[in-house]
Design a protein that fits this description.
This is Endonuclease-reverse transcriptase. The chain is mainly alpha-helical. The chain is built from eleven helices and four strands; from the N terminus they run ββββααααααααααα. The radius of gyration is 20 Å and the shape is globular.
């Protein structure tokens, strides 16, 4: 895989010529150059979530108590849909896609459809599943605090503090960065704030709430 700054050329290891691809899966996530990296991963997570849900559909559609279905969903489906999400750049559109998929799964568990015109609040009150936006935003907030408090200068911290080379940026709106929502919520010095564990935990509740609102 090559970026725009490199002239594509054959790469040979031993006697094997490596295939040139636009993307590949590494450590469970899509690696892709360009602005659509996380959009592709969101779609992939939804597909994998439905695959996990489908394998257990006979249980979700059975007559067992709903609390057991909820526990099964929380332990076997939700982790698949949220794997690696702490490394994502959050946007309302990406979060909305995941919430829509989760609502569809909840309706499938209850055996209802959109034609029944049940309110989202009524569905959630019956399923009692953890809101996927809540889980994702909580994972990212905890991960951000963990990175900020590291003192061993590992690459995760270096990536955040790295300043790109000088030059003119491309035309158009810049893509959303991983730390943009953290900066918007906790300020440009969010890493200093995160070193206070008690303060960071208290701010985390409000941060999670902004992503779990029904308007997304």
């Amino acid at each position: 895989m090559f970026n725009v700054h490199v002239t594509p050329m054959p790469v040979v290891v031993g006697n094997t010529k490596l295939e040139v691809v636009d993307e590949y899966v590494y450590l469970g996530q899509i690696v892709r150059l360009g602005k659509s990296n996380f959009d592709r991963e969101v779609n992939r997570r939804i597909q994998l979530g439905w695959a996990a849900f489908g394998k257990l559909r006979h249980i979700f559609s059975s007559g067992i108590p709903q609390n057991l279905k909820t526990r099964l969903y929380t332990q076997c489906v939700l982790p698949v849909m949220t794997y690696g999400t702490e490394t994502w750049s959050f946007t309302a559109g990406r979060m909305r896609k995941l919430k829509v998929a989760q609502r569809a799964m909840e309706r499938a568990m209850l055996g209802v459809s959109l034609r029944d015109k049940l309110r989202n609040e009524d569905i959630r009150s019956r399923t009692r599943v953890t809101d996927i936006a809540q889980r994702i935003s909580k994972l990212k907030w905890q991960w951000a605090g963990h990175i900020a408090r590291r003192t061993d200068n590992r690459w995760r911290r270096k990536v955040l503090e790295w300043q790109p080379r000088t030059g003119r940026r491309s035309v158009g709106r810049p893509p959303t960065r991983w730390s943009d929502d953290l900066v918007r919520f906790a300020g440009s010095r969010w890493m200093q704030v995160a070193r206070d564990r008690a303060l960071w935990r208290s701010l985390g509740e409000a941060y999670v709430q902004q992503w779990t609102c029904e308007g997304l």
